[in-house]
From TrEMBL:
Keywords: Coiled coil. Belongs to the PspA/Vipp/IM30 family. Residues 101-149 form a coiled coil. Residues 232-245 have a biased composition (Polar residues). InterPro entries: PspA_VIPP1. Residues 221-259 are annotated as: Disordered. This is Phage shock protein A, PspA. It comes from Cyanobacterium stanieri (strain ATCC 29140 / PCC 7202).
């Protein structure tokens, strides 16, 4: 393989690649419809011209046919009058118009066949254009859906999943830490409040007990004051007397030992 052939293939491949990348399906479809519509316009013009030519040929054919029939009648008239020369001249004119009419008839048949073919092609082209328009709308919808899906997939693929996941994990840890701090602050606040209430309640119990003791003491002193004279007041008095007797016995023993 020569170097120029290889170079030509490389150039062609690069050009085709650029064309494929620059080719927009929607624009290509629109241009194809425009091209087909232009062909349809040209086809209709051709059919119209063919029909017009066919009509002119038919008119000429009918005119020459009428002239041929007219000179045929004149030849018969001249021959009937005995003027053979005039009849011959009329037949010559009749043959001339008849030959032209025959030529036009052949041309008219050919034009009729051509016009029929053009009309069939015109109908076929119109049907293809209608089908192409319908298919174009379907392909445009599919292309738009595929393009949107491709963009979505590209967006998803460009997302850094690990980074996003780690960010969510960090935020979750931060929220958990904030919740723990909030709960701890709430518990500490509750403990402080409970301790104040306990101190108040405890202080009330002590005050109540102290008041009860004072009441008992005051009640005892009043009771001892209310006792009659000569009656022992309470057990503390009796214990005082017995302690005094013991002391007297100890003092007596000390004197005996000294003597």
């Amino acid at each position: 393989m020569g170097i120029f052939e290889r170079l030509g293939r490389v150039v062609k491949a690069n050009v085709n690649d650029l064309i494929d990348k620059a080719e927009d399906p929607e624009k290509v479809l629109e241009q194809s419809i425009r091209d087909m519509s232009e062909d349809l316009i040209k086809m209709r013009q051709a059919v119209a011209q063919a029909i017009a030519s066919q009509k002119r040929t038919e008119q000429q054919y009918q005119k020459n046919q009428v002239e041929a029939n007219k000179w045929q009648q004149r030849a018969q008239l001249a021959l009937g009058k005995g003027d053979e020369g005039l009849a011959r001249e009329a037949l010559v004119r009749k043959k001339s118009f008849a030959d032209v009419a025959a030529t036009l008839k052949a041309q008219l048949d050919s034009q009729s066949t051509q016009v029929d073919g053009l009309r069939r092609n015109l109908v076929t082209l119109e049907s293809k254009i209608s089908e192409a328009k319908t298919k174009k709308d379907m392909l445009k919808a599919r292309f738009s859906a595929a393009k949107a899906n491709q963009q979505l997939q590209n967006t998803i693929s460009n997302i850094n999943t690990s980074s996003a996941t780690s960010a969510f994990e960090r935020m979750e840890d931060k929220v958990l830490q904030m919740e723990a701090v909030s709960e701890s602050a709430g518990e500490l606040a509750g403990v402080g409040e409970e301790s104040r209430w306990a101190a108040l309640e405890g202080g009330a119990d002590v005050d109540d007990e102290l008041a009860a003791m004072k009441l008992q003491l005051s009640g005892g002193s009043e009771a001892s004051a209310a006792l009659p004279e000569g009656q022992p007041q309470d057990s503390h008095v009796a214990s005082g007397e017995s302690s005094s007797a013991v002391d007297d016995d100890l003092e007596e023993l000390r004197r005996q030992l000294n003597s």
